[in-house]
């Protein structure tokens, strides 16, 4: 994937953004779309700033992720405009002059202060849909985030353009390279902190660049779904390693999880291989027209089957799903949309006008309940965990007798397993970007 691919696919992406914006404005009764890139935020009672996080509605238009105080201005029928803030500032590195494949498609106006934007915004502030945070307001141009406009854009963000998929492939290239480095560090006996640093070094990204905080858990820590503590010292005995870590490429994210056993001949390794094989079968269900909630429920059946076959729970897999027993071992959703945001927006939207499709009863953490369309990119991330709190609930519940507690106790020290890939829904077979990314390293 070269920059050329991005340059050649970008015009169609921008054309789609323009046509979506046109229809969104029509629905909301607005004449112009304004999207401020966002502002710098500060710690309370302090002059220390938080890392800048660009407004996703802004980076959807152009690969600009380090430009606070800038604006996208779009009036249907006119060329889109970027007000590009390049401040006079000798304390910080200011953004370079606008450059790259996106520039020729815009009227780019360099401004030197945020207030200078006022000279270049459409005259009629009342006819603007302004998508952004309150702190981006200048003059009468206060973000109003009209629901009709936001819902329309968020609904259609589910389908990615070729350009966006190329961007996500780039992010995946950084992520898989770093996952390999992390596994090497684990096998060499590094601490969680040391593995995290090896990952960042290989990805060439740190906390400010990564799309979410790395989850790097050894042993029991693998059972904590969002474990971000990172012990500085390795444990005396190293048994297992779960890493859920992504990477970014100009504002697009990847989200990858792998689980490794230190002893690759033991029963935890076998369990990992079973979850891995099931994950691939679930990925194969990412097909146009499929209800993603069904993919989630099927994943429960897959995990329950593994629990049954491994002698962990003596109960028919279907009953495990119906009674909620499988949810004690697999307590999160099977995945989510991904793109400009790791948990990309619109997962519950019933239509382009709004409305919400609730997750199935008993599955509150599922983040995507829509039918899949070609161009949708989703994660598939099944797991089996031996989490203290949930095992306790199971032990105190009515199905405790169906659980082989000796097996659970033998597996607790390994924490848990999650395998996560990103899959593109197409008109035909799904495309697993993560597996393709790892295969390209071999
Ligand atoms: N890394 C967060 C998730 O997998 O959804
Ligand atoms: Mn995920
Ligand atoms: Mn993840």
Automatic annotation (TrEMBL):
Functional summary from the UniProt entry: Splits dipeptides with a prolyl residue in the C-terminal position.
Record domain Xaa-Pro dipeptidase N-terminal: where: 9-155
Keywords noted in UniProt: Dipeptidase, Hydrolase, Manganese, Metal-binding, Metalloprotease, Protease
Name the record gives this protein: Xaa-Pro dipeptidase
Cofactor (UniProt): Mn(2+)
Binding site for Mn(2+) 2: 244, 255, 420
EC number: 3.4.13.9
Origin species: Lysobacter defluvii IMMIB APB-9 = DSM 18482
Pfam families documented for this protein: PepQ_N, Peptidase_M24
A single GO BP: proteolysis
Domain of life of the native organism: Bacteria
UniProt: Mn(2+) 1 binding residues: 255, 336, 381, 420
Residue intervals of the Peptidase M24 domain: 167-427
Signal peptide: none
Cofactor binding description: Binds 2 manganese ions per subunit.
An example molecular function term from Gene Ontology annotations: phosphoric triester hydrolase activity
Cellular component GO terms, alphabetical: cytosol
Similarity comment: Belongs to the peptidase M24B family. Bacterial-type prolidase subfamily.
Catalytic activity: Xaa-L-Pro dipeptide + H2O = an L-alpha-amino acid + L-proline
